TrEMBL record:
This is Uncharacterized protein. It comes from Halosimplex pelagicum. The keyword Transmembrane helix applies. Keywords: Membrane, Transmembrane, Transmembrane helix. The chain crosses the membrane at residues 235-253, 265-288, 300-318, 325-341, 376-394, 400-427. It comes from the Archaea.
């Protein structure tokens, strides 16, 4: 019974937190209407042509974007149109370019088309141009495609083409592809005939110099670092309320912590380690093909459960460790889990980072009344953590909106951090905590020397 209850609590709380994280990003990104990736492949071209007195029907449209070494992109769009419209556009180059530019000036991802060229070949409108700032180079030479990154955009994306193909710089391979796309010959392709037509909600895309776990890890770290880089200071408002709540709780623990019940560290360590390991294994098995859990939820649960179990195991492995040893074990376990998570996905790495504050309650318990330096370090880290969580949840928000969103994002996260952190705090204190305090008081009490 002791192991079963923490298992159920872990699964329930983590499922809630996973849903909160998914909902949190939605309001910030879903407000503006979506922007077309290929402005000349669909209705935008027909509307622009109609404004010029041309009735145009788009029969089929494709676009290829070649990402270059300098981060710019080269568009090659080919749109098959009806015969009459093709004849009129072929006969008048000025009219043709005016129609194309008008279609690109609508709600599209294209902001500054350069070297624009247009032609009509066999009833197919051919449009090529260049655009700077499509991608940037990150850690280890990984190229992140900013054009599609949801963290870099406030509007959604519309495929607006029958096929979209994105190719990386020469000599690179796909190191991260969206789930709605397929990888073909080193390029990423979306088709309206696929099982999931459209770009989908996950559009993060990256290319790396080589394939393998190291490239995937560098890609994931690059995405997380980019998310932090594009965050606006106003988003930190999401961290104000949880930081205040954590601060009040830490003061209460300092004042009344001695009144918390003593626990058997060996028994509690076995319960947390066993239940955490079981949950991690079950969630990992779900990633292998089970349909019981969404992939993002399974990654979240497996990552947190693995870190939680590994930190709790430190109490048994180290056997009454010092506060500094407990802190070193916790930070080492966090780094190990984060490294493994970076190979899995962005969601897994973000979960690992968001789970560290809960893990830090273990060295906080060991440091109570023993090591002031470790106590100060952990308290400062816990008070700063909500602002880091705010950046990971929503990269931009007005201060007022941030305070409102915190009720659905960082405040539930802080509550989960405390809920899972307190058992680790009790594990860190152990039954020897009171004895250590008495011995310390005896050494400092002048009356004891008489």
């Amino acid at each position: 019974m002791t192991a079963r209850r923490p298992t159920l609590l872990a699964v329930a709380a983590l499922l809630v937190c996973s849903g909160v994280g998914a909902v949190a990003v939605g309001p910030a990104n879903a407000a503006p209407p979506p922007e077309s990736v290929c402005g000349v492949c669909g209705d935008g071209l027909a509307d622009a042509a109609e404004n010029e007195g041309i009735r145009l029907t788009v029969e089929y449209g494709t676009a290829t974007i070649r990402v270059r070494e300098d981060g710019s992109g080269h568009w090659d769009a080919r749109v098959r149109i009806d015969d009459d419209a093709a004849d009129r556009l072929a006969a008048n180059a000025t009219l043709r370019e005016r129609v194309v530019r008008a279609s690109l000036d609508r709600r599209t991802v294209v902001e500054d088309p350069r070297n624009l060229r247009t032609s009509v070949v066999n009833d197919t409108l051919v449009v090529t141009f260049d655009q700077p700032g499509v991608a940037h180079r990150s850690l280890g030479g990984v190229v992140l495609v900013d054009l599609l990154d949801p963290r870099a955009r406030r509007a959604g994306l519309d495929l607006d083409a029958d096929q979209l193909r994105i190719e990386g710089p020469n000599g690179t391979v796909v190191s991260r592809a969206p789930s709605a796309a397929t990888v073909e010959n080193g390029a990423v392709v979306w088709r309206v005939t696929d099982e999931e037509p459209g770009l989908g909600s996950d559009t993060r895309l990256a290319f790396a110099p080589s394939d393998g776990p190291a490239a995937r890890a560098l890609t994931t770290v690059g995405f997380v670092a980019f998310s932090v880089g594009v965050a606006e200071p106003s988003a930190l408002a999401l961290g104000v309320a949880p930081a205040a709540l954590l601060g009040a709780l830490l003061l209460a623990v300092r004042r009344w912590g001695d009144e918390l019940p003593a626990v058997d560290p060996l028994l509690l360590s076995k319960a947390i380690t066993g239940s955490g390991a079981a949950v991690a294994v079950l969630a990992g098995a779900a990633l292998a093909g089970s349909v019981l859990l969404d992939a993002a939820v399974a990654e979240t649960v497996a990552t947190f459960a693995a870190l939680y179990a590994l930190v709790a195991a430190g109490a048994a492995v180290l056997d009454r460790p010092s506060a500094r040893a407990a802190l070193g074990w916790t930070l080492g376990a966090s780094a190990l889990v984060a490294l493994a998570a970076s190979v899995v996905s962005v969601v897994a790495l973000q979960t690992a980072l968001l789970s560290i504050p809960a893990a830090l309650w273990f060295p906080l318990g060991r440091a109570g009344g023993r090591d002031r330096g470790v106590t100060v370090f952990v308290v400062v880290a816990l008070l700063a953590a909500p602002f880091g969580a705010a950046v990971l949840y929503v990269p931009w928000a007005s201060p007022l909106l941030g305070l409102l969103l915190s009720a659905f994002t960082t405040i539930p996260w802080a509550a989960a951090t405390v809920a899972f952190g307190v058992p680790l705090y009790l594990l860190g204190r152990g039954p020897d905590d009171a004895a250590d305090r008495v011995e310390a008081d005896d050494r400092t009490d002048p009356a004891s020397a008489d």
